Amino acid sequence: MTITTVSSRELNQDVTRAKKATRNGPVFITDRGKPAHVLLSFEEYRRLTKQRRNIADALSMPGVAEIEFEPPRMVIGAQPADLS
């Protein structure tokens, strides 16, 4: 998958190029240098918005490897029972 980035001005000047770029992956559209919108093919949009049936499907979606997620470690220790 290739991510293409275009400015709002470039998009306005050549919409066809941006639409063709969605064949290879999402197109990020920037406003003043910051990502503001994403252009996707309709097939990719439908794939991303379909209901996931299990965790394996959700974890197999493109881009998951780039998501930073470090959950806190849980320490579960035994505590003495109060039998009084």
Automatic annotation (TrEMBL):
Membrane spanning residue stretches: none
Pfam families the record matches: PhdYeFM_antitox
Ranges of Polar residues composition bias in the record: 1-15
Domain of life: Bacteria
Xref: Gene3D superfamilies: YefM-like domain
Record-linked InterPro entries: Antitoxin_Phd/YefM, YefM-like_sf
Region (Disordered): 1-28
Protein family per UniProt: Belongs to the phD/YefM antitoxin family.
Function recorded in the entry: Antitoxin component of a type II toxin-antitoxin (TA) system.
Protein name per the record: Antitoxin
Source species: Chitinasiproducens palmae
